[in-house]
Design brief:
Number of domains: 3
CATH architecture of the largest domain: Orthogonal Bundle
Strand order of the largest sheet: 7-8-10-11-12-13-14-15
Structural class: alpha/beta
Amino acid sequence: MERLRGGTLGDRLARGPVAHPWAIAVMLGALHGLEHAHRQGVLHRDVKPENLLFGDASQVKVADFGIAKVVGAQGARLTATAAAIGTPAYMAPEQVTRSAGPLSSATDVWAAGAVLYEILAGQPPFPLTGDLGDVLFRRVTEDVPALQEVAPDLAPELAEVVMQALRRDPAERYATPGMFAAALEPAADRTLATGGLAATGIVLHRTSLTERPALVEHETLTTTLPVAPARGRVLGALAGVAVAAVAAVAVLVLSSGGAGTPTLPAAPLGWPTKVTSGFIDQVKGPAGVAQRVGRGGTTFAVYGGDAAAKKDWSHQPGETRPGQFVRTAHRLGLFPYLSFYSLRSLGQSRAGDDAQAPELRQTLGNVRLMRIYWRNVKAFLQDVGSTRQTAAVSLDSNFWSYLEKQLVPQGASPASVQAWVGGTGLPELKGIPDNLQYIAAGWRELRDRYAPKVRLGYEFDDYASDTLDISRSDNPPEQTVVQAARLAGQFYETVAAGDLDFAALTINGLAEEGEDPSPTNNYSPAEKAAVVTYVREFSARAHVRVVLEGVPLGNTVSKAITDKPYHWHDTWVQWLVGDDRFSGLRKLRDAGVIGVMFGVGSGADETCPCDAKHDGTTNGGKYSTPSTSADDDGGYYAARMAALSKAGGLSLD
């Protein structure tokens, strides 16, 4: 490894201001170095003064590319591990939220522009004081202050070149570092004193300026490294210290171009290789599920309650423990899926109803209740982790959506909501900031310690609960659905990206169509198509795969359907898997869905693929097909799952 004795650009800047020609020459050298790396398929993602090194007084080199492996003859594919996603002062908007666009060559252009802006202006593009979340949020919602205003002695032409590199929209920046250099050098030659760049003594190893496609990141699978700090954990003071905003192990797939439909994000590590589906069998539990979905399917269970009142899963002696549920599922060849439902119930027993946004903010801001909560989460993950087996856990009772509904219209940052995490006193959570942005980080920290094989899911219901003003009864236009999904994806990026492994979208309320026929409770065919659009846009923006929860189990096929308790009609199962191509499920798979959890409630409100009514085989309904079993849905769900299994399922590859 080459030893560079000249120090870093950060070292030079610490000594005091530098001349503009020297600063521009150094940045030109860095841009040509980045251009060369991009042509080999390597995206840096962490350009900053500390990563620009001098071999001697005349040559600048770009350093700290992380641990990278270039695959393919042209280096079109890159695998990078142990790479920090960025340093706050120099992070482009798309590094803060993927709703601003995918990471690309323009991401490094923004960072290089931020470094040059800071040198020329004597200050970074955005202030670094205040909460880290606000520091990052500002670059997503505000334009960089005009360089000419903070550095009035700089030539307007030069200032405009730098400002173009710092546009919020990646498409409005220079597409590549080479194009930035191609604009910067002639502007400097025209505006600086004669021989200004040459007089600096900086040696420029120029790359050819032939056009090439920009690198675009199409796929990121974020996994976890137990020794890595949690997402967003503050590692030092922002002023004058390089702070890694995110530390994670990442697998990147980079390719030339960027046109067309983006590649779907990878499924979480350890996920089944095919779209998985399951339900809660109210009679036989996981064994009954295995009979109807076969090996490779999913069984799930809900663990929740008010832990503060000792009315939760951990205080019910007869409750199947989470670890026991996971072991049973694996023994039956099923993938275990657990839903953790606690925050909306916590401290609400006397109120008699689950918390919405005002009550949730009170709960999150109550250090006593949140200490109980995190101890409960720890016990839950320890129990699941004791199995040393894979499982999925969706969290936590859609509470994110209620707060999102309150924050988004106000343009408020999640960091503005107090939520006790590190301050609760749990030693494992020490140092994690106490606001909404770090709830997911707390879960990840405990998961990494106690249940590393568990995949964590962000449970939300933006579509079902009309969180972002989508009214299903109105058959919203596509653009309305797309915009809502983008906002939801942006919120996910702010509160969960890098910490959680998948998203869990609840698409229904608490009743099947036969029990509640109101338009707001049910989906027309057009509205089901809108769900596909929503999932596709959310998955692309948030860069995460999706599980559907709350999918009704009724049908309009079997004579068992009478629209009486336990035997309600609905149309989702038919839409998903009713034909031999399983067209609905295929569309959702192609949009980003990796699993479907059926069921909208329990007891009489559910049309269970089991005999929960205990009334045997029934045929009293108005539909045409005789029941094939005693299941409350007449055996329709089991028959369609058997057909799907016989066809080989739907692969996630």
